Each structure stands twice: as structure tokens, then as C-alpha cells.
Please model this.
Amino acid sequence: MTAPVVEQPTDWTEPGAHPVAPGVHRIPLALPIPSLHAVNVYVIEDGEGLVVVDSGWAMPDTRTSLEGALAALGHRLDDVAQFLVTHAHWDHYSQALALRESFGTRVRIGRGERPSIEAFDVHRGLHPRQVELLRRCGADQLADEIAGRPVDRSERDVPHTMPDAWLDDGERIALADRGLDVFTTPGHTRGHIVLRDAAAGLLFSGDHILPHITPSIGLETEPEPKPLRSYLESLRLVRDMPDTVLLPAHGPVRPSVHTRIDELLEHHAERLDVAAAQVRAGHGTAFEVAAAMRWTRRRRSLDDLDAFSRMLAVLEIEAHLDVLADRGVLDSHEEGGVRRYAVRR
Model:
């Protein structure tokens, strides 16, 4: 049984502090990413100070929005005792770091994020490893396009430093009024974590489980070799737990984690079938397979997407092809720095 869902605004991006459970409020903060609209941060009122799950993108407007929402609850920014961050993407992590500079707030994040946080260097570009992977996928032109994108000032100024402490798999965060269990759920990033409040029937899912979209896979400075394999395993890990309310980072609150996981697993099973069919049709690289497929709910061609979305699409297909190779459906080999796939005989 899951906890009852507190009624939410029709528009999940509506500003303010929206109750989702006793002592827990959802605050959507706007993002400079039109496709995502906003990020939900969750404020947990605790006897020893506020605990906030994720933090938003470090921008003046989002700081003002967070400050205003907390004021509506009778709190201030310096009442936040700690941020618990699900992963190191800027829309989750950077405002926590900025507020730490102002108030000394404690910031914790999954230990598996350490390689990407340590390796991040804006002078290398925003996606240096992805450029390398695109070339392996046979997408040289797209790789050049991503590599040639200049880093603007707002991106250079986003804080991206180390946390105060790490969160480890199996750790229990004992608050005054509740306990949060930490589970590592690699895939979206290698160090992604979710937080589970079993007693209240809540899962703070970050980007691991989203109600409307399928999360990107392995978009980070130092991605792991097989991010989709890890993601599918992480979904099954959470699916094996008793069901809870889904508190996602992007999108509305949903009553069942299990229902959404089943949809995500079905989506990836279908993607695996389509990718395998494209290899059988003679497409031998991840780029060729991605170019032969349709994307988004509007079934757009790869060429119709912007460069960033094309990058995500090609790398997602490579991850699917690697899973098919692991399962013995495909063979793969590298030729001239490009990974090629064929149906296993």
C-alpha cells in the first residue's frame, strides 16, 4: 500500500510550497532548459532544521523563488541544515553549493558522483567525454558540433565543487522525525541515489524515475562503461521494494513508483527490440541506428532534433546496442575507432 497523495496543482510547475505529505513540501524551481520546465526540490521540516532534497540551478531567480517559498512556510534560507542531493547535474546540485557559500549549509551527495565532480573542468567544454563517445558511435560531424559549442559566462560561473560529505548505499539518515534510507541507483549518472522514507511511504526519486519522460543515460563528465545495464538493474532494485508515492525531480507527484517503473522497463524493452531490428536491417553503428529511428512522441527524425538532443539520442542507442551485445543478441568490434555491431550468428 502507498500513502495517499495530497492534491497537487494541475500545473506541477506552479510556484510555491506544495504539501505532499505531513512535514514535506514540494517547491518547483524554474530552469533555463525549456524541455524540463522546472525542477522539484523537497523541503522536509525536521526538529533539527530543514532538510532539502535537491536544490535547483544556481541562478538569482531560483534563489529568490526558493527563499519566497520557504518564507511562506515560516522559514528562511539559513534555516536549511543540509541539502541531500540525488546527483551532480547543475539543476540539482549547484544551488546547494551556492547557498553553502552564503550560509555554510551542509551538502551531501552520492559517493559515486565523485569521479565526475573531480574531473569537471569547464575549460575542456561541457561534454568532452561525450564528444569522444560520439566519434566511437560514427557521429564525427555531430561530435564536432558539440565540441565547437562555446561555453557562455553563465555556464562558466555555475559552482561545481566537492560536497561536505558523501552518501553511501545502505546508509540510513536519521532525522529527528523520520529516517531516510539511501539507495544507489546508477544509470542516469553513475552516482545517482534515491532516498526512501519507508514509514511515510515516500520515494524521493531524483531523475531515476520520472513520470513523463525517460531519463537520459550516462550524461556526466565520467560516465560508466555500461550505463543502461546499470539503469535497468537499478529500476529492478527499486521495483522489488514495497510500493511508495513517487516524488520525482521533474513532473508531478504520482501515487505509485511501481507503475512508472513498469512503464520505463517496457519502454526500454521496446527500444532494445527496435535497435536490434535496425542492426538486422544493415545499420552497423549507433549513429546509423539512431538516424533510422524516430524520436519523441512526435516521432521526429534524428535530423529534426537540436544538437544536444541528437547527442543524447545517439549515446542512448549505443547504450542499448551494448546491452544487446551483453545479452548475446549482437556482436561488436571496433574498426578505425568506430564501434560496429552485427547480428550474432
